[in-house]
Design a protein that fits this description.
58 strands; Pectate Lyase C-like; 4 domains; 10-stranded parallel β-sheet; mainly beta
Length: 808
């Protein structure tokens, strides 16, 4: 305990020195070129690089202080009628839960845990020990050195000690969606909609998009990510204004990444969240699991200890808004070797405006794969982690998926010499700020993660900022405290301390190389905290953010494939229309290439005016059109779409007799468009014909015809049955060419049967080139002596579609 106390005092001293550097700035102080003294949210340099306003993070967007003290009424869990045991001897789970339920159902208040040890466990019937599905509940102890929650339960797979939860799931719309009307490639609070807005002031909405084939190609990930395999950038916002004339809504914070109608950008409501829930002034510890099986992949092996603790958390906030966790510590229960937690610490999921302040987490027992041993994990919007310490986590601080944006980690500490790095973990979490963080034998990664994961983690972030990072010591094997390899632009501005170096990646998928400034010079950086300065400016400035002069997209060629569009079904000759433009007026295109299924169609310095592709030269099915372009700055882009060639049609008519269904009457199964009157069906002696279905026969030996719709007919096959092989004189085939019936020549192939008196005769042929067939006619003429002398078993037609709704 003494060593932990000394370490904590050292950490606090370092954080205090870092945060107090503003008044101590010497005359040699410097400002980032991207953050001048007169900065506004619309500022960008000549290359289009810009810093977003991150000051919306935290409880009520930083516009209110965290609540202190009790909210009436106050319920003491150790008093009647709950009598929770505070000695650590008896399980107190249900007593505490009963107090939470009573306070929550009454509309709110404080659940108070006086000094003591409260043993809790997660029942088999629920995924947490203690659940708070209510708003306006404060769950408070007497201090992290006085009130202890002790988890004495090892069957914790996917469970939490404390779970705060609403019914909000950002990927589950409630009601209809409304499409966004225009490309929003910049930070904005004004959202144009298609049609009259269906939302009202005060509504909470999700703004998002699909990760389409075009989006994947734009991010150079079409070979590793499938369309729809990861969520698009997702923003949970409250509507603050509606303009029915302009068909716009205004929301309470800006967008953090681009939204295009091309990608089904849209707005919708979701289930209700919980608000104003606070957890404070307590410690959480977990009795270590005594079992075996702690390998990295053992979380997938039933019966192992890793399997039983996999995915568990000390605290999870799910569907929470304007909530907080403050003054919380992990602790090592008596009897544990070093373990504080079984697996994970705090997870903020599908939540917004949550502040986590003055929280310290240590030493998880399981730091295996699959998401275990993470101390602070974000899959939320606009959350603030401030004055926190993370020690020996698998990943001390972690961002996951595109739900995670607008978040700020500031004045925090990370120590992890023997495990993995703090990181942006997977699937493009855009626009987050790491500010005034101390890195001590850890490294903060914002880079390419390759094919790791079931759905490859790949690109991890874009437009995220590292500001004033202090390194106390490098982690072994690394000579950097920050690794930045973000898609498009990323920013590392100011490092300091005994370990102050950074590493920038140059993966072709992520170019251009990220912006770096002030390496080793952050001691004189003005302001020391980007977050604090932006918050002060915003509160003084007021107004909304709407910056059409900015562009989230990297400075690569802008490629637009006008036709065909992704998923289009095409036939015949089609025009291929593409537009390629440089990202800025001072940049020139050097090469544009158009490829179809990797075969080059065009190469030039600019896009072709129009290309014509004869799709009849392609196999029916899916084909990929790809456009590649490069600029004189050495940056390139590609865009691709997949379309469907559907030139061929085919039809098989087995000439089935009407079906007697009883209740529904007689159902016709005819595929013909016209028949003469002298036809019937023969369903007898099916074994002689080698098939169990009926045949079409004439009632008597008269001239009769059958006609099928057959626009674009190319080939035909008719299966006839006759007792003589010489039937050519009794069969007439023709197609309707405009207004005239044109006779067709055909060949016959006789298949004799040793056990049937009937010959199976294939009648085959093709329509002459230049003939524009619209219908196919089969005629049997008199002379064979009996209407049943020739029986029609099957008609197969195939041809070219002449329209998208043509053919069969």
């Amino acid at each position: 305990m003494r060593n932990n106390k000394l370490k904590r005092q050292r950490i606090w001293l370092m954080l205090a020195l870092l945060s107090l550097s503003l008044p101590c700035l010497a005359s040699g102080s410097w400002r980032s070129q991207l953050y001048p003294d007169d900065w506004t949210p619309g500022f960008a340099d000549a290359q289009g690089r810009f810093l977003q306003d991150f000051s919306f993070a935290g409880y009520h967007a930083g516009m209110r202080e965290l609540p202190e003290g009790f909210l009436e009424p106050v319920v003491d869990v150790t008093q009647a009628p709950y009598f929770a045991d505070s000695s650590g001897q008896a399980d107190a789970t249900e007593a505490i839960q009963a107090a939470i339920d009573a306070v929550g159902k009454a509309g709110g208040g404080t659940v108070y845990l006086p000094p003591g040890i409260y043993k809790v466990s997660a029942p088999e019937t629920r995924n947490f020990a203690l659940g708070i599905p209510y708003s306006n509940v404060r769950f408070l102890g007497a201090g992290p050195d006085k009130t202890y929650l002790l988890l004495d339960c090892q069957q914790m797979r996917g469970k939490d000690v404390i779970r705060v939860y609403g019914s909000t799931r950002w990927n589950q719309p409630v009601g209809s969606t409304q499409s966004i009307a225009e490309d929003l490639t910049y930070p904005t609070q004004i959202i144009p909609l298609k049609g009259r807005p269906r939302f009202e002031v005060g509504d909470w909405v999700v703004i998002t998009h699909d990760t389409t084939e075009a989006w994947m190609a734009e991010h150079n990930m079409d070979d590793l990510w499938r369309p729809g395999s990861i969520p698009g950038a997702t923003f949970y916002r409250q509507v603050v204004a509606v303009d029915y004339d302009k068909e716009t809504i205004t929301v309470d914070a800006p967008t953090r990444y681009y939204l295009l109608p091309r990608d089904n950008a849209r707005v919708y409501k979701v289930g209700e969240h919980v608000e104003e829930v606070g957890i404070a002034h307590l410690a959480i510890g977990m009795v270590e699991h005594p079992g075996k099986g702690w390998g990295s992949e053992d979380y997938e092996v039933p019966g192992t200890a890793a399997y039983e603790v996999h995915g568990s958390h000390a605290i999870r906030l799910l569907g929470a808004v304007n909530c907080w966790v403050k003054d919380v510590r992990s602790f090592k229960p008596e009897g544990n070797k070093n373990v504080h937690l079984l697996s994970n610490g705090i997870l903020l999921s599908h939540s917004r405006f949550v502040t986590v302040q003055d929280v310290e987490l240590h030493d998880p027992q399981y730091r295996g794969g699959g998401g275990n041993g993470y101390h602070f994990t974000l899959t939320s919007n606009d959350c603030l982690i401030i004055d926190c310490r993370a020690i020996n986590g698998r990943h001390n601080y972690d961002f996951k998926q595109a739900y995670s944006n607008g978040n700020v980690i500031t004045r925090c500490y990370a120590y992890s010499p023997d495990s993995l790095n703090s990181d942006f973990h997977m699937h493009l979490s855009p626009s987050n700020l790491i500010d005034q963080v101390i890195v001590d034998q850890d490294r903060f990664d914002a880079g390419w993660r390759g094919t790791s994961g079931t759905t490859p983690h790949g690109l991890t972030t874009t437009h995220s900022v590292f500001w004033n990072i202090r390194g106390e010591a490098y982690k072994s094997r690394y000579g950097a405290i920050v690794y930045s390899e973000q898609y498009g632009w990323g920013y590392v501005i100011g490092t300091q301390g005994p370990a102050d170096q950074i590493q920038l990646g140059r993966n072709p998928r992520t170019l251009p190389e990220d912006y770096a400034e002030g390496v080793g010079r952050a001691a004189d950086l003005d302001p020391p905290s980007l977050y604090a300065d932006q918050l002060q400016r915003r509160l003084a400035r007021g107004g909304i953010i709407h910056c059409p002069e900015l562009d989230f997209r990297p400075p690569m060629p802008r490629i637009e494939i006008g036709y065909p569009q992704a998923g289009d079904r095409v036939i015949g000759e089609i025009p291929v229309r593409v537009a390629v433009n440089p990202p800025r007026p001072d940049v020139s295109l050097t090469k544009v290439t158009v490829l179809l299924d990797d075969e080059e169609l065009f190469t030039g310095r600019t896009a072709p005016d129009e290309l014509i592709v004869n799709t009849r030269q392609l196999q029916d099915g899916r084909h990929t059109l790809r456009v590649e372009a490069a600029t004189d700055e050495g940056l390139s882009a590609r865009q691709s779409i997949t379309f469907l060639v559907s030139n061929r049609w085919s039809m098989v008519d087995r000439l089935d007799a009407p079906l007697e269904t009883g209740w529904f009457g007689i159902l016709s199964r005819e595929m013909t468009v016209e028949v003469s009157e002298g036809w019937t069906y023969d369903q007898s002696r099916s074994e002689e014909f080698g098939r169990g279905e009926s045949r079409r026969v004439r009632v008597k030996d008269s001239e009769e015809y059958l006609i099928w719709q057959a626009a674009g007919l190319e080939t035909f096959t008719v299966i006839l049955y006759a007792q003589t092989p010489d039937i050519a004189d009794y069969v007439r085939l023709a197609v309707l060419d405009e207004k005239d019936w044109r006779s067709l020549t055909f060949a016959t192939q006789v298949e004799e049967s040793t056990d049937s008196p009937w010959h199976r005769i294939l009648v085959t042929g093709a329509v002459p080139q230049g003939t524009e067939a619209s219908q196919f006619r089969l005629t049997l003429v008199p002379g064979i002596g009996d209407g049943h002398g020739i029986q029609i078993g099957e008609v197969r037609l195939a041809g070219w579609r002449t329209s998208l709704d043509g053919g069969w």
